[in-house]
C-alpha cells in the first residue's frame, strides 16, 4: 500500500477509537424519569399537554351560536305554481284529431295547441255565424230607418224600434263570440276547432293522444311558466307554530327555496301540515322531481351548533368532550334540536360559543374520562 495512504488510514482509525472511548467514559444518568400518564381530576376533567393532545390524535372545532334548526329528510316534489300554470280544456266534448305541440315545447299565448272534432263546437260556430248575419242586417236596417226619419218619411217610433232590434242583435253576437273566444278556441278548416294556449310557457304534460275522446272541461294539456317552480312537502303538526313565510328550504344539490305558503289545516291522510316553497332559482329542476329537503326553522336563543362528529351517544342521552384552557371534560347535551350530518344543533348549559369540542380522538378521552352514563352504570346499587 502507498505509505501516504497507510498514514491517512491510521489517523482515521485512531480518531474513531477516541470517539468511542469518550462516549463510553462520559458520565451520564443511569435512569430516566417516565412521564406520568394523565389522570382524571375529582371535578371530572383531565389536563393534557399539547404533546399529549397531539399524541392522542385529538382534533378540535369551535362551538358557535346556531341561527337555525335543520329538519331533515322531508319528502318533497317539485310542482308548477298555481298562478303560473293553466290547463288546456275544451268547453265541448269531442274527439282529438291532432296535437299541435310536443311536451317540453315553448308556446306563446293564443298559439293553437290541439285540434278537436266536436258537433257541439260546430253548432257554436254556426250560432256565431247566424248571430253575425242577423246583427249585420239589423245594423243596416237601423241606419236606413234613421235616414228615412230624418227625411220625414217614417215616424220616430219605427226608427226607435229598428235601433232596439240592432242593439239586441249586437248583444246576441257578443254572446256568441264570448262562447268561442272565452273558451280560447277558434274555428278551423274541415269543421274542426283549435284549442289555444291560455298563457305563454312550456308544455309540461300531455293527457291525450290523437283519436282520444275528450269530455267537456276535461284537461288535455298543462302549460306553465318554466321560470317559476315550487316545492311541495309536509311537516309534523307539532312544528306548525314555528312555520312562517320566508323560511329557507335547502336541497342536497345546494339549491334553495323559501316557504311561500302554509296549509291552514292538516292533511287528512298524513296528519301533517302541507307547505309550499318557491325556488330562488329553479335552473336545473323541472316539475315532477322527487327528493328530500331540509327545512331550516328559527333557533332558540340558547341553541348552539357543533360539528356532528362531536356529538356522542351516552345511554339515552348525548355528550360532547369540550376543552376549557388545557383541561378536557365530558359535557352533557340536554337536548338535540337537529342534525343535518354536518352540524348538530344542541342545547347544553355548560357549553358556550367560542369553546372547542373534540371531533376526533374521542375514544382516547373516553378511556380517561368516563361519560355520565358510564359512571352511573358502574356505580354500586344502593
UniProtKB/TrEMBL annotation:
Record Pfam families: BSH_CzcB
Residue span(s) of domain CzcB-like barrel-sandwich hybrid: 86-225
GO molecular function per UniProt: transition metal ion binding; transmembrane transporter activity
Highest taxon of the lineage: Bacteria
Keywords of this entry: Transport
Cross-referenced InterPro entries: BSH_CzcB-like (IPR058647), MFP_Cation_Efflux (IPR051909), RND_pump_MFP (IPR006143)
Gene3D superfamilies recorded: 2.40.30.170, 2.40.420.20, 2.40.50.100, Helix hairpin bin
GO cellular component: membrane; outer membrane-bounded periplasmic space
GO terms classed as biological process: copper ion export; plasma membrane copper ion transport
Family under the similarity heading: Belongs to the membrane fusion protein (MFP) (TC 8.A.1) family.
Alphabetized NCBIfam families for the sequence: RND_mfp
Protein name as it appears in the record: RND family efflux transporter MFP subunit
Organism field: Thermomonas haemolytica
Lineage per the UniProt record: Bacteria, Pseudomonadati, Pseudomonadota, Gammaproteobacteria, Lysobacterales
